[in-house]
Amino acid sequence: QVQLVETGGGLVQAGGSLRLSCAASGSGFSFNAMGWYRQGSGKQRELVALLTRGGVTNYADSVKGRFTISRDNAKNTVYLQMNSLKPEDTAVYYCKANSLYSGLPYWGQGTQVTVSS
How far apart (Å, rounded) are the C-alpha atoms in residues 76 and 74? Predict the structure, then answer.
């Protein structure tokens, strides 16, 4: 069984930075695309950033130039470096990973990011 555990959320002032981490546990698993989604209060969950195993990235327009996604395949871990944070970045951030072999998606439990103005 795969578990994704996010860490690194918290409260930060506008203009500040946070780094989120998501570690996938479970022996024998490898992942293709790994990424981050977020859901603000009263809003739908949206893609923030995605990184394939081959290194292709996809970012939401709202975070381009401010957020950077990276991963360590050996550790089955994906990171999200968030700089120049804005109040509108406030949301619960979820990690998602797609199994390399089955394609099944796995989700983390979410971590709250709050940006104060």
Answer: 6
